[in-house]
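Problem 12. The chain below contains 124 residues. Write out its predicted structure in token notation.
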Amino acid sequence: QVQLVESGGGLVQAGDSLRLSCAASGRTFSSYGMGWFRQAPGKEREFVATVSWNGRSTYYADSVKGRFIISRDNAKNTVYLQMNSLKPEDTAVYYCAAGSGPLYSGSYGYYDYWGQGTQVTVSS
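Solution.
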């Protein structure tokens, strides 16, 4: 079992930055890849970013590439999502997820455990 708790969401203006955190407990954190997904009202949950177990490999959705950075600190059992140059279309509930293995993946089905989500709202 893995428990995931996101934090760091909020209301910001377009162009601002936010850093989301996801604290994990349970299974050995360094044994699995992590991902961030988001879900806007009336839309399906979509992939945002993912990182491998050791932090060396990352992959991003085209919509956030160059603006968002995913990282992890295995000593703190935490994964981060640094979001820069935020746009109104980034408004969503952001979820972190723990993968079924050590690799990274943009596939929803790869992830076994999910956090409760944190709201990010970007005003224009």
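Discussion. The mean pLDDT is 96. Students who got a different answer should revisit the alignment rule from Section 12.3.
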